[in-house]
Amino acid sequence: MGARAHVTEERYLAIQSAWREAAQRLATHDREMRSKYGSVRWELYASRTERVRLERLRAREQRAEERMYALLDTTPAGERWRSGVGCPFVYREMTYAQAMAERPVLPASAIGYGSDRRSVWFTVAA
């Protein structure tokens, strides 16, 4: 595990916000390209400029994700965040208090897999 450092709420929220923004920009670009070229492998038909933009957006999202997990490695739960926790929960739902908990409370079923917020129950990570 990495060295523990004090993570401020402002820093956590800034990184989470940057990750959300990057994911949103990537999704918007993908939606625009699917509308223009169709939903099946649109990258094959896109112009070089559009493909370059896609790669830049993917890289930006990846960097934001890496910053978030590097930050989470310094929390009391440490590297437990790297497995068993879906990325959508981390960048959309997880609060600062959950991130800083010694034994974080996590959703047992991922909202992204077809359930809704009302059907999600919570558990304490091992």
The assigned structural class equals mainly alpha
Distance between the termini: 16 Å
Tally of discrete structural domains: 1
Radius of gyration: 17 Å
Q: Any low-confidence stretches, pLDDT <50, length ≥5?
A: 113-126
Query: Beta-strand percentage?
Result: under 5%
Oligomer: single chain
Give the number of helices: 4
Mean pLDDT: 78
Helix-strand string: HHHHEE
Number of strands: 2
User: What's the shape?
Assistant: elongated
Q: Could you estimate the helical fraction of the residues in percent?
A: 40-55%
Largest sheet: 2 strands, antiparallel
Strand order of the largest sheet: 1-2
Question: Which features characterize this protein?
Answer:
mainly alpha, two-stranded antiparallel sheet, elongated, 126 residues, 4 helices, 2 strands
Could you give a quick summary of the protein structure above?
The protein contains 4 helices and 2 strands, in the order ααααββ. With 126 residues, it is mainly α.
Architecture overview:
By secondary structure, this protein is mostly helical. It has helices at 9-37, 48-73, 87-93, 96-100; strands at residues 105-107, 122-124. The protein has a two-stranded antiparallel sheet with strand order 1-2. α1 runs antiparallel to α2 (48-73). The two termini are 16 Å apart. The relative contact order is 0.14.
Describe the SSE topology:
Elements: H1 9-37, H2 48-73, H3 87-93, H4 96-100, E1 105-107, E2 122-124
Antiparallel strand pairs: 1-2
Helix pairs in contact: 1-2
